[in-house]
Every structure is written in structure tokens, then in C-alpha cells.
Amino acid sequence: MNVLVLGAGQLARMMALAVKPLNINIRAFDVGSDTVVDPLSTDIVFGGLTQGIEFADFITAEFEHIDHQTLALCQASGKLRPSSQAIKVGGDRRLEKDLLIKCGVANAQHQIIATKADFDQALNNLSMPLILKSALAGYDGKGQWRLKDKAQAEDIWLDIKAFFDGGVQGLQHAVVAEQMVPFDREVSLVGARDSQGNTLVYPLTQNHHTNGVLSVSIAIEIDEALQAQAKQVFDSIAKELNYIGILAIEFFQIGEQLLVNEIAPRVHNSGHWTQQGADTCQFENHLRAVCDLPLGSTELIRPSAMINILGEDEVPNEILSVASTTLHWYGKSKRPGRKMGHINVSGNDEKQLAERLTLLADMLPEAEFDELKPYVASYKKQLS
Ligand code: ATP
Ligand code: MG
Question: What's the whole-model pTM score?
Fold first, then answer.
């Protein structure tokens, strides 16, 4: 079976590694260079999208900010899974909010802003503090503003306006203003849906962000009520999108309630622990769904966590001496803050996992793994 992945980053690479034993060949379309590459070596295997589409039995994506012309070509081939519509929803916060409303799932109070009048109205209708997020992310590498009080409003509006003016022309730009949610923690649900509509989800994952980027994910020990609540949201969104593949949903947890933050129509960073911690990892299950193979069990084998390696191309070798620890590099060149690799670690129970996380946090340099030590300490405390 041949599969073309739109995007040639680490997610395509990990898909290729996971499904080689199933005799599924992955080629990746690098949108930057407009060529089809081997996702491991990144060597060009053939030029152009047209050849890539011809090569493929199925087409999928590793990111959601794909130009609409590429998506239309893939959709027209009848091979694209999930559909171009599902991918577009993940890449446009306006469509995403419409979807959440349509599915009746709880999310943060928000308003869409395209003009100064919308902006003024949002300031009146929503309560501070606000977070403003560009609807179409990914064309500047930035596009989030935090507004604490009305005194900052004029400056922030000028900044947003400059952002609209500087963005890709011909696209209608907007930002979504959201009320800041006073969450207790952030969690996410990664799950798979096949073409028959069967769904299987992994255990919820508890996520810690450092400077707005995911730094640590820990699979959550069974909390049946919370898991059922998240599964219900997953099922309604996946059904509405007639989804095929892995879909991730990020939530804010407040008490026992979950509010959807955003969705990602792809394998997700908060699901990387499944490589060692689940019966079938998210990368294999994504391709199983896309290629019409039966889904594999998503059960937790043992408590597991993932630590992101951000902006570094080496870590002390001694981390591999910690039992049940694996290291996954993405083969990318070093840049500040860039996702370069991750570390997975498991334990026979949560206590053992916490001990191993503590050993790792002691070995990894504090400056580069900012907040890891205190976060691991708070996880340990949460267990006792
Ligand atoms: P990523 O691609 O890393 O998931 P993103 O750029 O798509 O991030 P969001 O997930 O929307 O952006 O926001 C990033 C982080 O900012 C969230 O994980 C959360 O910590 C914080 N955040 C976003 N929206 C809110 C909100 N309404 N209330 C409180 N915190 C928020
Ligand atoms: Mg997010």
C-alpha cells in the first residue's frame, strides 16, 4: 500500500517508521519545495504533487495549514482521508468555532473579529482578560495577543490591523477573541475513527505548556467520568466531519467540566507517548484507519509520559539508562524553540513513572528543560 502524506515533518516521519512492518510505504509532499520526498532521508523521490497523487492509494496530512488548491486536487482524486473539509476546519478558527457550536460542545465564550467595530463589540460583550488568536494561523509564526484591560485595547488593535495588512493577500483575515478560561489543567483526547464510523480513543492526556508550547504530556490513569465526557465530544465532532483517521481534541478542565480549546485533524504531539505506552500507537492507528485496516487497540499498556525536546539537538546519553525510556529524534536542524525530538518514559504504575520522570528531570539541563523539574514535582504531589 502506498500513502502520500501532505507535509514532510516529524509526524510524517513517525508514520513511516510505525507502518513499515505493515508494508505501507509513506512518501511525503513537502509543500515548501513542491516535491515528494522520502520522509526519513528527506531525499526527493519525485517532483510534483501530480505524481505524488498518482503514486498513492491513499492521501493524508500531517498538518492543517495546507493551501486550498492542493487540498482540492487531493480531494478530487478521491484518495484524501480525512476530507479536505475536515483539514480546513482545523486550519481556520472561524470554521472550528462554527463546528463546536453545531456539535453543541462547550467552549470558551468568544467573538470573531474582522473590523474595528467587531473589536469594540467584543470588548463590550466579553469579560477580561481576553486572548485573541488569528483565525488563519501559520503564515507568520505568530498571531496571538493577550488583552488584560481596556487600556491596552488601542495598541493591540493597531497590532492586529498591521497583522491583517501584512498577511497573505487575497485571504480574508480575522481573529477570534476568547475569554481567558481559568482552567485547573489542560488535557487532550486522541482517538481514531475508521471509514465505517467505528471509534476508539486513547486515555486522556494531561498536558503542560511552557511559553505557549507543549513541553510534557502524561497519560491519565482512569477517570471514567472525565474520559466518558471527552469521548462524547470526540464522537460528535468526528461524526459531524465524517472523519477518517486520528483526530485530537484539546480541552481546558475546570473542576469536572471540559471545555474544548481546539481540534487538530491529525496525529498530535500529546499522543506521542502512545509509541511506548499504548497497545497500538497513534501513527499506526492513523494509517490503519486511512488504509481501511481494522483499528488497533488503544488501551494503555502502562502509565507513560512524554517530554518534548525543544531547540536542542543533544541530550545527556545517561537518560537512556533510566528504565523504560526511549529517545526519538526528528533529524531536523537546530533552531530556538523548535520541536527537535521527544523522550518517552513508562512505569509499571504511576508511582514508578513519577520516580523515573524525576530521574530524567535531574539529568536534563534545567535551562533547556525549563519548568520540567517543578512540573514533575507537582505531578508527584498530585499522586500522593
Ligand atoms: P498549539 O498549536 O501548540 O496547540 P496554538 O497556537 O494552536 O497552540 P492554542 O492551543 O489555541 O494555540 O493556545 C495555546 C495555549 O494558550 C493553550 O494551550 C493554553 O495554554 C493557552 N490558551 C489558549 N486559549 C486560552 C483561553 N481561552 N484561556 C486560557 N488559556 C488559553
Ligand atoms: Mg493548542
Answer: 0.96
- Which class in CATH covers the domain with range 2-80? alpha beta
Reply yes or no on whether the pLDDT at 10 is more than 50: yes
Tell how far the Cα of 163 is from the centroid of ligand 2, in angstroms. 20
Residue 45 CB–ligand 1 contact under 6 Å:
no
Could you tell me the residue ranges of all domains in the chain?
Answer: 2-80, 109-179, 185-383
Q: Is the CB of 133 under 6 A from ligand 1?
A: yes
Ligand 2 centroid distance, CA of 1 (Å): 32
| Whole-number pLDDT of residue 140 | 42
CATH architecture type of domain 109-179: 2-Layer Sandwich (3.30)
> Which CATH number is 185-383 given?
3.30.470.20
From the CB of 131, is ligand 1 less than 6 Å away? yes
Distance, in Å, from the CA atom of 380 to the CA atom of 304, rounded to the nearest integer, reads: 14
Ligand 1, atom 7, lies closest to the CA of 262
Chain segment 22-48, per-residue pLDDT in tens? 999 999 999 999 999 999 999 999 889
pLDDT cut 70: percent of the chain above it: 98
What are 133's strand-pairing partners?
144, 176
181 lines ligand 1 (CB under 6 A): yes
Give per-residue pLDDT as tens, 169-219. Answer: 767 789 999 999 999 999 999 999 999 999 999 999 999 999 889 999 999
Ligand 1 touching residue 262 (CB < 6 A): yes
Atom 14 of ligand 1: nearest residue by CA position:
212
Query: Long-range CB contacts (< 8 A, 24+ apart) of 353-361?
Result: 353/218, 353/302, 353/303, 353/304, 353/305, 354/379, 354/380, 354/383, 356/322, 356/323, 356/324, 356/325, 357/305, 357/307, 359/322, 360/307, 360/319, 360/322, 360/325
Please name the residue that has the C-alpha cell 515528494. 36
